[in-house]
Specification:
This protein has helices spanning 19-39, 78-81, 90-94, 119-123, 177-189; strands at residues 8-14, 44-46, 49-52, 55-63, 65-67, 100-102, 107-109, 112-113, 127-139, 142-156, 199-202. It has five helices and eleven strands; from the N terminus they run βαββββααβββαββαβ. The chain is an alpha+beta fold. The strands form two sheets. The protein has a five-stranded mixed beta barrel with strand order 1-4-10-9-11.
Length: 203
């Protein structure tokens, strides 16, 4: 039996500070907890709800790579060839790049797809709406629940954006300055009237 490579991106959303959105978020948490309680049949289970000193958060998962339909072809698709990779992962990536292709998390802002290299920066602290599926596995005496992210729509950008460690043009390059300024201006103009937001992404 051939094994399949599984690399997952894990991120969390936390309770928004805005009152109306916070109520919607708490209702979502309660619904997911009730779902888990009704489905599980074991005493112990892996939850998609995690908690720390800031409160309860929803943990989301997204597979980073998918198996190509035709394996072994010595040619990369454009997405794979341009995928940003940390230097420390360059060699492992070389070993899989012909058999797997990246499956970037689809993140949208104002109807535009955000390039994968900018998603960490764009999502940090933002108000978002997430479309996801709930997966459940029962292995022997253990139930596991997972929220698999399908699509993220940014409703309002966060006030602070931290740099990522991915290889990309330096943020101080003149080429990047207009885009950087525009994304902050868009954050000020974003409409907060929508009540569909489910939370804000945290690291």
């Amino acid at each position: 039996m051939k094994s399949e490579l599984i690399i997952k991106e894990i991120f969390h959303i936390s309770r928004p500070t805005y009152h109306n959105l916070a109520e919607d978020y708490q209702a979502g948490i309660s619904t997911l907890e009730a779902l888990q309680s009704q489905v599980t049949t074991t005493k112990q289970h892996g939850s998609m709800i995690v908690e720390d000193m800031t409160g309860k958060m929803i943990q989301f998962v997204k597979n980073v790579f998918t198996l190509k339909a035709v394996e072994g072809a010595l040619q990369m698709d454009q997405e794979t060839a341009n995928w940003p990779i940390l230097d420390e992962f360059a060699l492992p990536f070389d070993s899989i790049k012909y058999n797997y292709k990246p499956a970037p998390l689809p993140v949208f802002y104002k109807g535009e797809l955000i390039d994968p290299i900018h998603t960490n920066t764009a999502l940090n602290g933002s108000i978002v709406e997430i479309e996801f599926t709930v997966c459940h596995w029962k292995i022997k005496d253990h139930d596991t629940f997972q929220a698999s992210a399908e699509k993220i729509t940014i409703l309002r950008l966060g006030a602070v954006h931290h740099k990522t460690n991915y290889k990309c043009p330096h943020v101080n390059n003149d080429k990047d300055q207009p885009e950087k300024k525009k994304i902050h201006q868009d954050a000020q103009d974003a409409d907060m009237s929508s009540s569909k937001a489910s939370g804000s992404k945290t690291k």
